[in-house]
Amino acid sequence: MFVINIKIKVMRKIIFYLSAIALVLTSCKKNTEFNNFDTLTKDSWMVEDIKNEEGNSVIEDCQKDDIIQFEDKSFSHIEGANDCSEGMFLRSAEWSFAEDGGMIKITKAIQTTSGIGGGALTEKYYIITLNENELVLKKKDENDVYYFER
Length: 150
Description:
Blueprint: H1 2-27, H2 37-41, E1 45-51, E2 67-70, E3 75-78, E4 88-98, E5 103-112, E6 118-130, E7 134-139, E8 145-149
Antiparallel strand pairs: 1-2, 1-8, 2-3, 4-5, 5-6, 6-7, 7-8
């Protein structure tokens, strides 16, 4: 009887440790398909073009000199000399990878230039292409595709 109790306790410990190991291995899912943090944050990106679903350019003149920058957790959208903010400006923004790294989520705090009003805005973009010289994003729930280059 004493030997059976020891065997049961040993089996319970083995099952416990195996379950813990399995839980750790499955919950620490590493993104092997898309792990381009360094490529994204290395330098700023200049707006190259915006195209609609037909492939036609829909970029406005005031967007052609804009720059975006992804840093550790912060996101910057720098309006060029041709400002098209129309009374709104970006107070601060944070970004993160979403959907196992296949998407970028940007949360922006915006404010009016008059100081009255503002709010928060969250946008998600599918990452179509990301390499050393090119970033292509498609905004979730929209058909426009955004092209950036270094």
